Each structure stands twice: as structure tokens, then as C-alpha cells.
Amino acid sequence: MPMLVSGLLAGFIVGVASGGDWRHLQRLDLKLWPVLLAGAVARVGAPFLGGFALASSIAGLALVALAAFANRAVAGALLIAVGSLLNLGVISINGGMPIDPGALAASGKPWPTDGLHVLLGPETRLPFLADVLLAPVINNIYSVGDVVLAVGGFWMAFRLLKHR
């Protein structure tokens, strides 16, 4: 969820900076917005739920994907659905989001204690979808799904503000 929010914020900033208009947001009619809100709450709250963190994260990703797909006519929404499903898939089949220990060491960050991450190893399925992408400038590790979510969020916000 942080990558989606980051993408949305960046899209709003670039959209406004390039002459976009906030009033265009008034025309946005999101379908299933309560489902999207429930998914966001489930994802944000997951790390605080102890033994329920993984289930909450999986449910949150599924709800975000469902709401995004329902709004696929909105620019960027289909990318948000795809990014959510990529993360949902890799998390579901591995019992958590695998994280590359080499990338984690390179980032200098400690092992995440959110109940959502597992060690990436030889038994990891779909390792290319795991948290393996180190972003050195911001010193964090992301998955392909995270990047797709961010791009979708950026595109959605930017297009909404620039729409004439």
C-alpha cells in the first residue's frame, strides 16, 4: 500500500505542477469505493495484527484488486489491479512476501518484524515477484507488484488532474 500511496502522491504533485486542476477530482465516481477503503485498511493495519497479519494483507490485496478492476475505465486502475494481484500471488504461494537477504543487507535495514515477510531462498516460488528490487536512493526494497502499483497510482492521479 505504501507504493500505491507514493505513486498517487507523486501523480498529484506532478499533475498540479504541470497545470492540472484539483476540480477534476469532483468528477471521479469510483465504483466499489467501500471495498477499496476496506482493502486499504486491511493492508495498512496488517503489520499490527500479529498472527492475523498475513491473512489481513492477503484480504486487503484482493479487495484493492477487485475495486481497481471494477474501475478499470479510470486511467491507472488496471495497473493497480495487476500490481495487487502480482503481490497477492507471490504472498499467497509463499506464505508471506519473500525478501532477498542480499538486498536487505545492502539496504542496511533490519529484518521486517511485520509478520508479512519470509526469507527468499531456493524453495521460494516466483522469486522474481518477491521483494528483490533495491532502490538505493530511498534505500528500500520493492517487488515488481509494488512498482506496478506505484506506476498505476501515479498515472491515475496525474490523468485525473490533467483531464480536460
Cα-atom radius of gyration: 16 Å
Secondary structure class reads mainly alpha
State the distance separating the first and last CA atoms.
29 Å
Number of helices: 6
Strand order of the largest sheet: 1-2
Gross morphology:
globular
Q: What average pLDDT do the residues reach?
A: 94
Give me the strand/helix succession.
HHHHEHEEEH
Low-confidence stretches: none
Feature tags:
globular; 164 residues; single chain; two-stranded antiparallel ribbon; mainly alpha; 55% helix; two-stranded parallel ribbon
Structural overview:
The structure is a single chain. The chain has 164 residues and is mainly α. Strand 1 (97-99), helix 5 and strand 2 form a beta-alpha-beta unit. The protein is built from six helices and four strands, in the order H-H-H-H-E-H-E-E-E-H. It has a two-stranded parallel sheet with strand order 1-2. The protein has helices at 2-17, 33-45, 53-70, 77-94, 101-107, 144-162; strands spanning 97-99, 117-119, 133-135, 140-142. It has a domain at 2-95 and 145-162.
Task: Outline the fold blueprint.
Layout (H helix, E strand, L loop, with lengths): L1 H16 L15 H13 L7 H18 L6 H18 L2 E3 L1 H7 L9 E3 L13 E3 L4 E3 L1 H19 L2
Parallel strand pairs: 1-2
Antiparallel strand pairs: 3-4
Helix pairs in contact: 1-6, 2-3, 3-4, 4-6
Compact description:
The protein is mostly helical and 164 residues long. The chain has helices at 2-17, 33-45, 53-70, 77-94, 101-107, 144-162; strands at 97-99, 117-119, 133-135, 140-142. The protein has a domain at 2-95 and 145-162.
